[in-house]
Amino acid sequence: MEIIVALVIVGLIALGLVRVSTVSVKSSRFSNDQSKATTIAQAKLAQMVNMRNNEADSFWDLRYSGTASETTEDGYCLLTTIVDKSTDPTGLPIPTESPLYNKALLALVKVDIFWGEKQAGVVCSNDKEEAVANYEHTLHFETYVSN
What we know:
The protein has a 4-stranded antiparallel sheet, with helices on both faces. Helices cover 45% and strands 22% of the residues. With 147 residues, the protein is an alpha+beta fold.
């Protein structure tokens, strides 16, 4: 009888260790995915700022293009939106002492990145609500740029 009780206790301990290991692996995977998503999103923000510096006309034309979506080779869904904030009273104020104040431009660059463990074959949509529904995880980044 004592052998059966001992085996049951050993079995319960082993089951607990398996569960803890599973949670630990899943948490580690999420941390790695989140770190990679952050790197991808920050690179996209840098790309947009570089575009503003090197191809200003093309960049400012994007304010009217809506949201662009792309899927990375790793399966992350990336949504990029450039919002014109030049005349938005809720945006950052453009100082009136700025040179050419009346021609000052201000844009908000927003990058949303989505991913999940079970997203193989999911199409990355321009619609943020659809992306939220299709993916398990998301991060949001934004920055302002001016001319």
